[in-house]
Specification:
2 domains, globular, binds 3-isopropylmalic acid, 21% strand, Isopropylmalate Dehydrogenase, binds manganese (II) ion, two-stranded antiparallel sheet, alpha/beta, 40% helix, 11 helices
Amino acid sequence: MAHRIAIIGGDGIGPEVTAEAVKVIRAAGVQFDTTEFDLGGARYLRDGEVLSDRVLDELRGFDAILLGAVGTPEVPPGLIERGLLLKMRFELDLYINQRPFAGTAAGQSEAHDFIVIRENTEGPYVGEGGVLRRGTADEVATQGSVNTRMGVERCIRYAFELASTRARKHVTLVHKTNVLTFAGDLWQRTFDIVAADFADISTAYNHVDAACIYFVQDPHRYDVIVTDNLFGDILTDLGGAVSGGIGLASSANLNPARTGPSMFEPVHGSAPDIVGTGKANPIAAILSAALMLDFLGESGAADRVRAACANPGSGTTSEIGNSIAALVAG
Ligand code: IPM
Ligand code: MN
């Protein structure tokens, strides 16, 4: 059966890189049908639609969602991010954000190959808090972080299960238990409880500030990292920067319980400054599509796409897409 894939190109370079990803998986011989959804900042400016519950329900009927990028300077920050991207993550229960990183960081002789498992439905991203007396000298703003035992445990368990399929079988918890003592304690205790179920997996803990140094100076120490939503957001930009650049960084927003579609998107943003110039690197989007193929049970095609991305050639966005598609098609 052909996979049913929803395409949300979104804003800025999103549609350009998504088109190349579709081209490449087509060349890989995978059977799929696409349905385009016109969502993002441009759509919002036109008629006020961000993501209605009706469209969200329509998305639930797909096998996967391929997303380009969202966010545009003409719309206040957070409106599209929260109303479209985070709404899909929360409402479709995409509780794992899986981001693989491989490469050799500047100044390192040894290559690294690790995966960040970022909790994707809780933490400061839930938008708990509010503002009082805005714009006055007495203004108060609070922004909470929600951490549930269920949410933390399912994320950590996923990380251990993933590590058990990998050669090094090592999981590192990254948090800030020395300052965020309430949430950190829940994460650390849950981590220890889950670890006890995986006797063959070794573990480590790093504070997030120390992890930033290790990402730059000793990234090969990592195999699987598990962390909360906000630390995972920040760390994965750094992961991209030490692994060939953010133009290569791919991600999967997964609902491992498969109660609905999962969503696949490059880590990078909409880069409005380079729209239409042909300068956008499509590889992050193409590698995100490869993660989608893995999740759809098309690992052979996914491996061929990844192998082709190792020799992408050079040129414009579509020239790179064409050359990867040609390699994949053999
Ligand atoms: C990411 C992005 C998003 C995030 C933004 C666009 C809301 O930075 O996917 O990493 O913060 O999660
Ligand atoms: Mn980010």
